[in-house]
Amino acid sequence: MDFYVHKNGEQIGPIDASELQRQFEAGLFSEDDLVWNQEQNDWKPLGSFLSRARQIPNQIAGAASFKDWWFTVWVRTPAVIMPARCSCCMRTDGLRQRKVAVDFGGERQAIEHPICSSCSKHAGVDSIAIAIAVVAGAIIPPFVYYSLFGLKFLRGAWELTLLVYLICGALVAGVFYFPIYRFCPWKGLDCADGGWPVDIEPEASEEPLLGKKNERTDEREYRLLSLRMQQGTAKDCIALRFTNRQYLAEFIALNGGDPSQIVTIEAKF
Fold this sequence. Notes:
The chain is of the alpha+beta class.
């Protein structure tokens, strides 16, 4: 059975019952919005047809914020509900589903999250820029070197030649990557996180972040918090990284958690 919804002066539909329930659960419709189908004469409040689930199983084991730059949430199962908005810019139109591969129960599974076409272009441009940069960094330095020195090693040492090649390759790759990614006109300019708003959180370890000898206090605090979570209350859970606080708050609420319980790591030096 198809329904029509009257919201903010606009008529939306037709929408089947399951999709209507899903969007209602995601907060896109309220109980006061009017709904109609062919079996009724008048528009009636949506709340008279649907009821929001009162006992949602809590799938959230914990959540943490690293200086509001990114957020980690530990979920107990891949069967989570994603808000029906772009997980980057919060739009509700032009959505497509992107999959995040996770390991759970010894199996490879996928968690889907919505993203709009504009924000999705960022990820595509990023992948293209990386591919071009890698190819340029691998080909251009040896071509230039061969043009200048032929097949001779620098000072007769292949180790020195390899080191120079790696350094030059990295520089060339950077020269190609950043202009393409930063100024490419194909991508939308309103995407703040490079098109990867939901991803897997790297596993925390006993070692300092990125192998730093002088790990900052806030980095250490966040790493140790993540380590305690994955060894304690979030053991056997999936760690997801979000970049949009508003989307994360809706995600936590939809999955039975409390958004106010996010642990925040402040900037420290």
